[in-house]
User: Which sequence fits this backbone?
């Protein structure tokens, strides 16, 4: 089994910054990709940013404002969010695409962390 634990959400004013963290632990052989998704009230979950061994991809709405990074040794992914806007308000979920120690491909989700951008 694998656990993803997110942290770093909270309330921030427009224009402010937050840094989200997601640590993966458990039966992990190799992580192929880690990413952040978000779901705003009344909307579908959407990809925010993803990082693989080949690079990163971002949603157009966050390009230039958000940066995803990864600590491979700690199986941790970060999302630095700058110039936050009210429309960034959502529950942010961490996702990991990995091989477990039985070398089975698996996909895991964290429980989510709430980010609220409001004055």
Assistant:
């Amino acid at each position: 089994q694998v656990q993803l634990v997110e942290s770093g959400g909270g309330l921030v004013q427009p224009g402010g910054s937050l840094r989200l963290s997601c640590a993966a632990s458990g039966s992990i052989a190799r992580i192929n990709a880690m990413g952040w998704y978000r779901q705003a009230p009344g909307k579908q979950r959407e990809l925010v940013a993803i990082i693989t061994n080949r690079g990163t991809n971002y949603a157009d709405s966050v390009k230039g404002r958000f940066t995803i990074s990864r600590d491979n040794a700690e199986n941790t992914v970060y999302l630095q969010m700058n110039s936050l806007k009210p429309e960034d308000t959502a529950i942010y979920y961490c996702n990991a695409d990995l091989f477990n120690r039985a070398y089975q491909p698996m996909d895991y989700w964290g429980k989510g962390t709430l980010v609220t951008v409001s004055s």
About this structure: The first strand starts at residue 2 and ends at 7.
